[in-house]
Amino acid sequence: MTRTIDIAIVGAGIAGLWCFNRLKRAGYDVLLLEREAIGCGQTLASQGIVHSGLKYSLAGKVNETARSISAMPDRWRAALRGEGEVDLSAARTRADSQMLLIPGGILGGLTRLVAQRALGGNTRTLAASEWPDGLKASGFRGSAVFMDEPVLDVPGILRALADPYRDSVRRIPEEAAAEPLAFLRDRGIEARAVLVTAAGGNHGIARRNRHDDGLETQHRPLLQGLMRPAPFPLYAHLVGTSDKPVATVTTHETADGALVWYLGAAVAERAKEADPAEVYAAARRAFRDYLPAVDLDGIEWAVLPIDRVEGRTQGFHMPDTPTLHRAGTVLYGWPTKLTFAPMLGDMVAVEIDHLGVAPSGRATDFSDLPAVDYAVAPWDKAAWTS
């Protein structure tokens, strides 16, 4: 027996989940398929920062990425208040804002001036008395700029998006994940539109279905660093002399309550197969220069290799918008960054409207398909140094 539904989505990362929740709330009959675990891969590997674009304006460089991202914090905050196109009021933020930590001196002063004027918004230099206690004792000498960039609790965001409609989030078998359109046909599920948000799997699915004409993607690998126990909670970009921070630090908690610093930006910009010791050494140098009073004796380290996949750009730079590719009634989407999930949702909504797919108001029973669990956070499965 054929079951006709409005939309099928493949991939339960932030892109698929945001679109899924938004479409379900609008009355669409949607099935979300995931082969491994909800939020696995690039989503839980993100640092959870809702970028305002400010860090991309450093060194006098106000680029298109900065302009595109600047409206995103307000979109996310509305959702966190339960006032957006999705309801994230059941989730929380880990920090009200990421900070820019800018060293003292002439260059630091110029960088701070550029950063604060480039995009406007609610940025301001914090008085030393306003610094978090850990930063006060860290030996940092320079300026701390409040960026108005909330840092999300990503596992909570995933649950807020999936839990209300969990019966419609189901597992696609590993052996069928490369051919999700065939899987839908074999199970008698006829979707009026399909959205594929399977990150690194998108291009292969498009190619096998001859949907890849005009589609170009790129891989930008990272080797993110982790260290525990973190000496104090910190959410900061350590600003250097380019538009790429020396390190970006966010703080997370393991299942047993230990604090972890998760390290991105320049310390992580290397091949996935690189020697982890390179990451640890780069992190130690960054902390020596910026936070010299922090004691790193007894610290355990780990790395997380990430293969970021997105629409291709000239010079393989980060795209300044999400990527959405359409082949007939099948859409292939990459948000580029967690921050861009609302923007990708807008693009998907426009395409679905162009396809003439209206919300049916139905809720098909998918109980014949297996359920799928939430992914484990990277810091809870990392291989730590002894």
Write the layout of secondary structure elements.
Elements: E1 3-10, H1 14-25, E2 30-34, H2 64-69, H3 72-80, E3 93-95, E4 99-103, H4 106-118, E5 124-126, H5 133-136, E6 142-146, E7 151-152, H6 154-162, E8 169-171, H7 180-186, E9 189-196, H8 202-208, E10 217-228, E11 236-238, E12 247-253, E13 259-264, H9 276-290, E14 300-311, E15 323-327, E16 330-334, H10 341-354
Helix pairs in contact: 1-10
What report would you give on this structure?
This protein has about 375 residues and is α/β, with parallel strands linked by helices. The protein has two domains: about 5-45 and about 155-220 and about 315-380, FAD/NAD(P)-binding domain (3-Layer(bba) Sandwich); about 95-150 and about 220-310, 2-Layer Sandwich (D-Amino Acid Oxidase, Chain A, domain 2). Helices cover about 25% and strands about 25% of the residues. It has helices at about 15-25, 65-70, 70-80, 105-120, 135, 155-160, 180-185, 200-210, 275-290, 340-355, and strands spanning about 5-10, 30-35, 95, 100-105, 125, 140-145, 150, 170, 190-195, 215-230, 235-240, 245-255, 260-265, 300-310, 325, 330-335. The strands form three sheets. The protein has an eight-stranded mixed beta sheet, sandwiched between helices. Helix 1 (about 15-25) crosses helix 10. The model has no long low-confidence stretch (mean pLDDT about 90).
